Amino acid sequence: MIQNLIENIKKKDAPIVVGLDPMLSYIPDFILDEAFAAYGKNLAGAAEAIWQFNKGIIDAVYDLVPAVKPQIAMYEQFGIEGLRAFKRSCDYAKSKGLVIIGDVKRGDIGSTSEAYAVGHLGTVQIGRHAFSPFTEDFVTVNPYLGSDGVKPFIKICKEQNKGLFILVKTSNPSSGEFQDQLVDGRPLYEIVASKVAEWGQDHMGEDYSYVGAVVGATYPEMGAALRKIMPKNYILVPGYGAQGGQGKDLKPFFNEDGLGAIVNSSRGIICAYKKAPYSDTFGPADYADASRQAVLDMQEDLKQAYVK
Asked: Could you tell me the CATH number of the domain that includes residue 181?
């Protein structure tokens, strides 16, 4: 699957993943009104609104970007109905040729870790038939339980030709409370990165591993150091746009081949119609067109990072 992601990035000249992280406050009133009229002002109505909102964005950007990244918490908050919207959104994005990065941040051990991996990346056997519960191609994983929490995911990834992005240095301001702590003179995030490089050797594609890393755009100087530690691991870069990351700052995340990183934007794209400069041109009825324009602008901005 890492080859599919890389080929999609090359084809569309866009190392971009759109974060499908909807909140009800992001959704235009006309979508909410239609969903609530059909299903009621309840969990089912909220989930329908989320699905319709996502569908509009996917339709607007699928030809521009290689991947989408739905954050499962935004769906789980609406219970079973929300998870149906998550599944429906993943399936629809897949039908449009997009790679699905499930932002699930799972982290447990043994059979529990394997069950998470099976649910999101694998197949579950029931009688003579195997079922794929979700349609993600990659998932995010929290490594802080050690190899016991990661290797069950790698096992399923090998079976299913799928991949991981492991949290190394996250974009949130308080990440340093733990991730920056020194251990034998090295910051903890560098030690985690070394393990990611090691795990990655166990599941290689042609040039890059199926095992990647999450490193926030808000820390480009750390990105440079981590790029050297993990030369064969793709880096998923959150924190662009709404959290302050800019294309000109992201060059350290890419390799000399112009590859090696994929940059996430969530609110900056899916909420573009609410923010300048897009709000000056696009109204709520044109929210998807605003998202498309935000992707085009991001694509141009990112060329500062990976085009020689």
From this structure: 3.20.20.70
Three-state SS at 261 = strand
Q: How many CB atoms lie within 10 A of CB 115?
A: 16
Q: How many domains does the chain have?
A: 1
In this predicted model, what pLDDT tens digit does every residue of 199-254 receive, in sequence order?
999 899 899 999 999 999 888 888 899 999 999 999 999 988 755 568 888 999 99
**Alpha carbon distances (Å) from 64 to 14, 25, 180:** 7, 26, 36
The 10 Å Cβ neighbour count of residue 55 is: 16
The Cα 260–Cα 308 span in angstroms is 14
CA distance 257 to 259: 5
- Please give the model's pTM, rounded to 2 decimal places: 0.95
117: domain range?
Answer: 2-306
Q: Report strand pairing: 138-141 vs 163-169.
A: parallel
Task: Name the residues annotated as catalytic.
Answer: 105
